[in-house]
Amino acid sequence: MTIRIPAKAFASLLLASASLLSAVHAQTLKIGVIAPLTGGGAPWGMAAAEAPKILAAEINAKGGLDVGGKKYRVEVIAYDDQYKAADSVAAYNRLVNQDGVKYMIVHTSPAAMALKQNVEDDKVIALTAAATPKAFDAKTKYMFRIVSAPSDYVESLIPWIKDHYKGSRIALLNPNDETGWDQAQLSEKVYKKTGFEVLGNDLYERAQKDFQPLFTKIIGKNPDVIDLGSTPPATAGLMIRQARELGFKGLFIKTGGAGPKEIVAGAGAAASEGMLSSLYIDPTNEGYRRIAADYKKSVGQEPNEMLGPLYDGVAVLLQAIQKAGDVGDTAKVAAAFSKALPMKSIQGDMLTLGGKSTIGADQQVMSVTYVGEIKNGQPVVVGKLK
Q: Is residue 140 scored above 60 in pLDDT?
Protein backbone atom coordinates (compact mmCIF):
# COMPACT_ATOMS: atom_id res chain seq x y z
CA MET A 1 0.00 0.00 0.00
CA THR A 2 1.33 3.47 -0.93
CA ILE A 3 1.04 6.19 1.71
CA ARG A 4 0.54 9.67 0.35
CA ILE A 5 1.82 12.64 2.36
CA PRO A 6 0.22 16.03 1.61
CA ALA A 7 2.62 18.52 0.02
CA LYS A 8 2.48 20.98 2.95
CA ALA A 9 3.11 18.23 5.50
CA PHE A 10 5.98 16.89 3.39
CA ALA A 11 7.56 20.37 3.19
CA SER A 12 7.25 20.81 6.96
CA LEU A 13 8.83 17.41 7.49
CA LEU A 14 11.77 18.34 5.26
CA LEU A 15 12.23 21.66 7.08
CA ALA A 16 12.16 19.98 10.49
CA SER A 17 14.64 17.36 9.32
CA ALA A 18 16.98 20.03 7.97
CA SER A 19 16.82 21.96 11.24
CA LEU A 20 17.50 18.77 13.20
CA LEU A 21 20.49 17.89 11.04
CA SER A 22 21.79 21.46 11.35
CA ALA A 23 21.52 21.31 15.13
CA VAL A 24 23.25 17.93 15.26
CA HIS A 25 26.17 19.07 13.10
CA ALA A 26 26.52 22.57 14.59
CA GLN A 27 29.48 22.99 16.90
CA THR A 28 29.05 24.50 20.35
CA LEU A 29 30.36 27.82 21.63
CA LYS A 30 30.24 27.81 25.43
CA ILE A 31 29.93 30.94 27.56
CA GLY A 32 30.46 30.55 31.29
CA VAL A 33 29.01 32.77 34.01
CA ILE A 34 30.49 33.24 37.50
CA ALA A 35 28.13 35.43 39.52
CA PRO A 36 26.21 35.64 42.82
CA LEU A 37 23.02 33.76 41.95
CA THR A 38 21.95 33.71 45.62
CA GLY A 39 22.22 36.20 48.48
CA GLY A 40 22.22 40.00 48.43
CA GLY A 41 23.91 40.24 45.03
CA ALA A 42 21.50 37.80 43.37
CA PRO A 43 19.64 40.46 41.31
CA TRP A 44 22.94 41.35 39.62
CA GLY A 45 23.99 37.71 39.33
CA MET A 46 20.70 36.55 37.82
CA ALA A 47 21.01 39.30 35.21
CA ALA A 48 24.51 38.01 34.43
CA ALA A 49 23.19 34.49 33.97
CA GLU A 50 20.10 35.36 31.95
CA ALA A 51 21.46 38.07 29.60
CA PRO A 52 23.68 35.66 27.60
CA LYS A 53 20.89 33.07 27.60
CA ILE A 54 18.49 35.56 26.00
CA LEU A 55 21.03 36.46 23.33
CA ALA A 56 21.97 32.80 22.81
CA ALA A 57 18.32 31.88 22.24
CA GLU A 58 18.00 34.61 19.60
CA ILE A 59 21.14 33.43 17.80
CA ASN A 60 20.35 29.73 18.05
CA ALA A 61 16.87 30.32 16.64
CA LYS A 62 18.59 31.63 13.49
CA GLY A 63 20.77 28.55 13.14
CA GLY A 64 23.67 29.60 15.36
CA LEU A 65 26.57 32.05 15.28
CA ASP A 66 28.33 32.18 11.91
CA VAL A 67 32.10 32.24 12.42
CA GLY A 68 34.24 31.81 9.33
CA GLY A 69 31.47 29.98 7.51
CA LYS A 70 30.80 27.54 10.37
CA LYS A 71 27.69 27.61 12.55
CA TYR A 72 28.03 27.48 16.33
CA ARG A 73 25.25 26.81 18.80
CA VAL A 74 25.72 29.14 21.82
CA GLU A 75 25.47 27.41 25.20
CA VAL A 76 25.52 29.20 28.58
CA ILE A 77 26.82 27.53 31.78
CA ALA A 78 26.31 29.49 35.01
CA TYR A 79 27.72 28.87 38.50
CA ASP A 80 26.94 30.63 41.78
CA ASP A 81 29.94 32.19 43.57
CA GLN A 82 27.81 33.72 46.37
CA TYR A 83 29.89 36.93 46.04
CA LYS A 84 32.89 35.06 47.49
CA ALA A 85 36.36 35.06 45.91
CA ALA A 86 37.05 31.43 46.89
CA ASP A 87 33.85 30.23 45.25
CA SER A 88 34.72 32.27 42.15
CA VAL A 89 38.02 30.40 41.83
CA ALA A 90 36.27 27.03 42.24
CA ALA A 91 33.70 27.96 39.57
CA TYR A 92 36.44 29.15 37.21
CA ASN A 93 38.38 25.90 37.55
CA ARG A 94 35.25 23.90 36.85
CA LEU A 95 34.37 25.97 33.78
CA VAL A 96 37.87 25.78 32.31
CA ASN A 97 38.94 22.25 33.27
CA GLN A 98 35.64 20.36 33.16
CA ASP A 99 33.39 22.34 30.82
CA GLY A 100 36.08 23.47 28.36
CA VAL A 101 35.00 27.14 28.48
CA LYS A 102 37.18 29.84 26.87
CA TYR A 103 34.72 32.74 27.21
CA MET A 104 32.97 33.81 30.39
CA ILE A 105 31.38 36.51 32.52
CA VAL A 106 33.26 37.08 35.79
CA HIS A 107 30.70 39.43 37.22
CA THR A 108 31.86 41.06 40.47
CA SER A 109 34.94 42.87 41.75
CA PRO A 110 35.92 40.08 44.21
CA ALA A 111 35.71 37.54 41.39
CA ALA A 112 37.63 39.72 38.94
CA MET A 113 40.41 40.34 41.45
CA ALA A 114 40.66 36.66 42.39
CA LEU A 115 40.78 35.52 38.75
CA LYS A 116 42.70 38.37 37.13
CA GLN A 117 45.95 36.43 36.71
CA ASN A 118 44.25 33.13 35.85
CA VAL A 119 42.42 34.78 32.97
CA GLU A 120 45.65 36.18 31.51
CA ASP A 121 47.65 32.97 32.05
CA ASP A 122 44.96 30.73 30.55
CA LYS A 123 44.08 33.19 27.76
CA VAL A 124 40.42 33.03 28.71
CA ILE A 125 38.35 36.03 27.67
CA ALA A 126 36.42 37.32 30.67
CA LEU A 127 33.74 40.00 30.69
CA THR A 128 33.25 41.76 34.02
CA ALA A 129 31.16 44.49 35.63
CA ALA A 130 33.82 44.91 38.34
CA ALA A 131 33.94 48.48 39.61
CA THR A 132 37.46 48.25 40.98
CA PRO A 133 40.17 49.65 38.69
CA LYS A 134 42.60 47.19 40.30
CA ALA A 135 41.21 44.39 38.13
CA PHE A 136 43.03 46.00 35.18
CA ASP A 137 46.46 47.33 34.34
CA ALA A 138 48.46 48.25 31.26
CA LYS A 139 49.24 44.56 30.61
CA THR A 140 45.63 43.35 30.69
CA LYS A 141 44.67 41.64 27.43
CA TYR A 142 41.92 39.13 28.14
CA MET A 143 39.62 40.79 30.70
CA PHE A 144 37.13 43.39 29.45
CA ARG A 145 34.84 45.59 31.52
CA ILE A 146 31.37 45.68 29.95
CA VAL A 147 30.03 48.91 31.39
CA SER A 148 31.22 52.34 32.43
CA ALA A 149 32.37 52.18 36.05
CA PRO A 150 31.95 54.77 38.84
CA SER A 151 35.40 56.15 37.98
CA ASP A 152 33.92 57.13 34.60
CA TYR A 153 30.71 58.81 35.75
CA VAL A 154 30.97 59.83 39.43
CA GLU A 155 32.89 62.98 38.45
CA SER A 156 29.77 64.00 36.48
CA LEU A 157 27.07 62.47 38.69
CA ILE A 158 27.94 64.23 41.96
CA PRO A 159 28.09 67.75 40.46
CA TRP A 160 24.77 66.99 38.71
CA ILE A 161 23.24 66.09 42.09
CA LYS A 162 24.68 69.26 43.64
CA ASP A 163 23.07 71.39 40.91
CA HIS A 164 19.65 69.77 41.10
CA TYR A 165 19.06 68.86 44.79
CA LYS A 166 19.41 70.61 48.14
CA GLY A 167 21.65 69.49 50.98
CA SER A 168 25.42 69.53 51.44
CA ARG A 169 26.05 67.45 54.58
CA ILE A 170 26.65 63.85 53.49
CA ALA A 171 27.50 60.49 55.07
CA LEU A 172 28.95 57.62 52.99
CA LEU A 173 28.32 53.92 53.56
CA ASN A 174 29.89 51.02 51.61
CA PRO A 175 30.59 47.28 51.98
CA ASN A 176 33.92 46.36 53.56
CA ASP A 177 35.58 44.77 50.54
CA GLU A 178 37.41 45.66 47.33
CA THR A 179 34.31 47.14 45.71
CA GLY A 180 33.39 49.24 48.74
CA TRP A 181 36.91 50.52 49.41
CA ASP A 182 37.32 51.87 45.89
CA GLN A 183 33.83 53.39 45.85
CA ALA A 184 34.33 55.03 49.24
CA GLN A 185 37.67 56.56 48.30
CA LEU A 186 36.49 57.85 44.93
CA SER A 187 33.18 59.27 46.21
CA GLU A 188 34.67 61.06 49.20
CA LYS A 189 37.22 62.80 46.99
CA VAL A 190 34.61 63.98 44.47
CA TYR A 191 32.06 65.02 47.13
CA LYS A 192 34.65 67.20 48.88
CA LYS A 193 35.79 68.71 45.57
CA THR A 194 32.17 69.50 44.70
CA GLY A 195 31.52 71.33 47.97
CA PHE A 196 29.85 68.67 50.13
CA GLU A 197 30.75 68.31 53.79
CA VAL A 198 31.58 64.61 54.33
CA LEU A 199 30.49 63.72 57.87
CA GLY A 200 31.66 60.10 57.77
CA ASN A 201 32.78 57.31 55.46
CA ASP A 202 31.72 54.02 57.07
CA LEU A 203 32.10 50.38 56.02
CA TYR A 204 29.93 47.38 56.92
CA GLU A 205 30.22 43.60 56.44
CA ARG A 206 28.21 42.10 53.58
CA ALA A 207 26.61 39.51 55.86
CA GLN A 208 25.29 42.25 58.16
CA LYS A 209 21.51 42.59 58.55
CA ASP A 210 21.04 44.89 61.53
CA PHE A 211 22.13 48.43 60.63
CA GLN A 212 20.32 50.33 63.40
CA PRO A 213 23.43 50.91 65.56
CA LEU A 214 25.32 52.19 62.52
CA PHE A 215 22.48 54.46 61.42
CA THR A 216 21.99 55.74 64.96
CA LYS A 217 25.58 56.98 64.83
CA ILE A 218 25.20 58.40 61.29
CA ILE A 219 21.86 60.13 61.93
CA GLY A 220 23.34 61.64 65.10
CA LYS A 221 25.66 63.70 62.85
CA ASN A 222 22.58 65.26 61.18
CA PRO A 223 23.32 64.51 57.49
CA ASP A 224 21.17 65.88 54.67
CA VAL A 225 22.17 62.99 52.41
CA ILE A 226 23.28 59.37 52.85
CA ASP A 227 25.13 57.74 49.94
CA LEU A 228 24.90 53.92 49.99
CA GLY A 229 27.63 53.65 47.34
CA SER A 230 28.13 50.13 46.02
CA THR A 231 25.74 48.44 48.44
CA PRO A 232 23.81 45.54 46.79
CA PRO A 233 20.19 46.48 45.98
CA ALA A 234 18.45 44.17 48.45
CA THR A 235 20.74 45.30 51.27
CA ALA A 236 20.19 48.96 50.29
CA GLY A 237 16.44 48.44 50.63
CA LEU A 238 16.88 46.98 54.10
CA MET A 239 19.15 49.89 55.08
CA ILE A 240 16.71 52.54 53.89
CA ARG A 241 13.82 50.95 55.78
CA GLN A 242 15.84 50.79 59.02
CA ALA A 243 17.13 54.36 58.64
CA ARG A 244 13.60 55.69 58.04
CA GLU A 245 12.37 53.81 61.11
CA LEU A 246 15.04 55.67 63.10
CA GLY A 247 13.71 58.99 61.79
CA PHE A 248 16.02 59.91 58.90
CA LYS A 249 14.06 62.12 56.49
CA GLY A 250 16.84 63.20 54.13
CA LEU A 251 17.90 62.10 50.66
CA PHE A 252 19.34 58.69 49.82
CA ILE A 253 21.80 58.35 46.92
CA LYS A 254 23.35 55.26 45.39
CA THR A 255 26.37 56.06 43.22
CA GLY A 256 27.27 52.49 42.28
CA GLY A 257 25.54 49.28 41.23
CA ALA A 258 21.94 50.44 41.02
CA GLY A 259 18.84 48.29 41.40
CA PRO A 260 15.85 50.50 42.15
CA LYS A 261 13.18 47.81 41.88
CA GLU A 262 14.91 45.62 44.46
CA ILE A 263 15.47 48.67 46.68
CA VAL A 264 11.77 49.53 46.61
CA ALA A 265 10.90 45.90 47.34
CA GLY A 266 13.08 45.98 50.46
CA ALA A 267 12.34 49.48 51.72
CA GLY A 268 8.83 50.10 50.51
CA ALA A 269 7.68 52.78 48.08
CA ALA A 270 7.21 55.49 50.70
CA ALA A 271 10.62 55.00 52.35
CA SER A 272 12.50 54.93 49.04
CA GLU A 273 10.62 57.84 47.44
CA GLY A 274 13.02 60.37 45.91
CA MET A 275 16.12 58.19 46.07
CA LEU A 276 18.69 59.01 43.38
CA SER A 277 20.96 56.51 41.67
CA SER A 278 23.05 55.93 38.60
CA LEU A 279 21.21 53.87 35.99
CA TYR A 280 22.64 51.84 33.12
CA ILE A 281 19.32 51.76 31.28
CA ASP A 282 16.24 53.81 30.58
CA PRO A 283 13.38 51.60 31.86
CA THR A 284 11.04 52.98 29.16
CA ASN A 285 13.36 52.15 26.25
CA GLU A 286 11.75 49.67 23.82
CA GLY A 287 14.93 47.68 23.21
CA TYR A 288 15.51 47.17 26.90
CA ARG A 289 11.85 46.38 27.55
CA ARG A 290 12.02 43.57 24.97
CA ILE A 291 14.85 41.71 26.72
CA ALA A 292 13.33 42.52 30.13
CA ALA A 293 10.16 40.75 28.98
CA ASP A 294 12.23 37.71 27.96
CA TYR A 295 13.89 37.72 31.39
CA LYS A 296 10.55 37.91 33.19
CA LYS A 297 9.20 35.06 31.08
CA SER A 298 12.16 32.89 32.07
CA VAL A 299 12.64 33.88 35.72
CA GLY A 300 9.15 35.05 36.71
CA GLN A 301 10.14 38.50 37.96
CA GLU A 302 11.46 41.84 36.75
CA PRO A 303 15.21 41.99 36.03
CA ASN A 304 17.89 44.13 37.59
CA GLU A 305 18.90 46.83 35.12
CA MET A 306 22.36 45.24 34.71
CA LEU A 307 20.59 42.99 32.21
CA GLY A 308 21.09 45.73 29.59
CA PRO A 309 24.88 46.16 29.72
CA LEU A 310 25.39 42.42 30.23
CA TYR A 311 23.38 41.68 27.08
CA ASP A 312 25.40 44.33 25.23
CA GLY A 313 28.70 42.99 26.55
CA VAL A 314 28.01 39.48 25.29
CA ALA A 315 26.86 40.92 21.94
CA VAL A 316 30.22 42.72 21.65
CA LEU A 317 32.04 39.49 22.52
CA LEU A 318 30.21 37.49 19.86
CA GLN A 319 30.83 40.24 17.30
CA ALA A 320 34.55 40.11 18.19
CA ILE A 321 34.54 36.33 17.70
CA GLN A 322 32.99 36.78 14.28
CA LYS A 323 35.50 39.51 13.38
CA ALA A 324 38.36 37.23 14.47
CA GLY A 325 36.97 34.40 12.37
CA ASP A 326 38.28 31.76 14.78
CA VAL A 327 36.44 30.51 17.89
CA GLY A 328 39.50 28.66 19.18
CA ASP A 329 42.02 31.52 19.07
CA THR A 330 41.19 33.79 22.01
CA ALA A 331 44.21 36.02 21.27
CA LYS A 332 42.69 36.89 17.90
CA VAL A 333 39.31 37.46 19.53
CA ALA A 334 40.75 39.77 22.20
CA ALA A 335 42.44 41.82 19.49
CA ALA A 336 39.19 41.95 17.51
CA PHE A 337 37.28 43.89 20.20
CA SER A 338 38.62 47.06 18.58
CA LYS A 339 37.00 45.92 15.33
CA ALA A 340 33.70 44.99 16.96
CA LEU A 341 33.28 48.49 18.39
CA PRO A 342 31.77 51.00 18.02
CA MET A 343 28.34 49.38 17.87
CA LYS A 344 24.85 50.28 19.06
CA SER A 345 23.55 49.06 22.41
CA ILE A 346 20.19 47.36 22.88
CA GLN A 347 18.87 50.86 23.71
CA GLY A 348 20.34 52.50 20.60
CA ASP A 349 23.17 54.32 22.40
CA MET A 350 26.63 54.10 20.82
CA LEU A 351 29.11 51.83 22.60
CA THR A 352 32.83 52.48 22.16
CA LEU A 353 36.07 50.93 23.40
CA GLY A 354 38.09 52.87 25.97
CA GLY A 355 39.41 52.83 29.51
CA LYS A 356 43.08 53.69 29.09
CA SER A 357 42.80 56.91 31.09
CA THR A 358 41.16 55.23 34.10
CA ILE A 359 42.26 51.56 34.12
CA GLY A 360 45.47 51.72 32.06
CA ALA A 361 44.28 49.88 28.95
CA ASP A 362 41.51 50.11 26.36
CA GLN A 363 39.70 47.10 27.83
CA GLN A 364 36.33 48.68 28.55
CA VAL A 365 33.02 49.04 26.77
CA MET A 366 32.14 52.70 27.36
CA SER A 367 28.39 52.92 27.99
CA VAL A 368 25.93 55.74 28.68
CA THR A 369 24.99 56.45 32.32
CA TYR A 370 21.59 57.85 33.30
CA VAL A 371 20.42 59.45 36.56
CA GLY A 372 17.34 57.84 38.05
CA GLU A 373 14.90 58.96 40.75
CA ILE A 374 12.39 56.71 42.45
CA LYS A 375 8.93 58.18 42.00
CA ASN A 376 5.84 56.35 43.24
CA GLY A 377 7.85 53.15 43.53
CA GLN A 378 9.28 53.28 40.00
CA PRO A 379 12.67 54.43 38.65
CA VAL A 380 12.33 57.46 36.37
CA VAL A 381 15.18 58.87 34.29
CA VAL A 382 15.78 62.50 35.32
CA GLY A 383 19.19 63.05 33.75
CA LYS A 384 21.80 61.69 31.36
CA LEU A 385 25.50 62.05 32.05
CA LYS A 386 28.13 62.87 29.46
A: yes
pTM of the model: 0.81
pLDDT of residue 22: 44
**Best CATH choice for the domain 152-279+371-385 from the list 1.20.920.10, 3.30.300.20, 3.40.50.2300, 3.90.850.10:** 3.40.50.2300
| CA 205 – CA 33 distance, rounded (Å) | 25
Tell me what pLDDT residue 303 has: 92
In 328-378, alpha helices (H): 330-335, 337-340, 356-359
Contact residues for 242 (Cβ-Cβ < 8 A; gap 6+)? 210, 211, 212, 215
Are the beta carbons of 55 and 101 closer than 8 angstroms? no
Task: Report the alpha-carbon distance of residue 181 to residue 130 in Å, rounded.
Answer: 13
For domain 26-147+285-354, give the fold.
Rossmann fold (3.40.50)
The predicted-structure confidence for 244-264, as pLDDT tens digits, reads as follows: 999 999 999 998 877 888 899
* Beta-carbon count within 10 A of 69 CB: 6
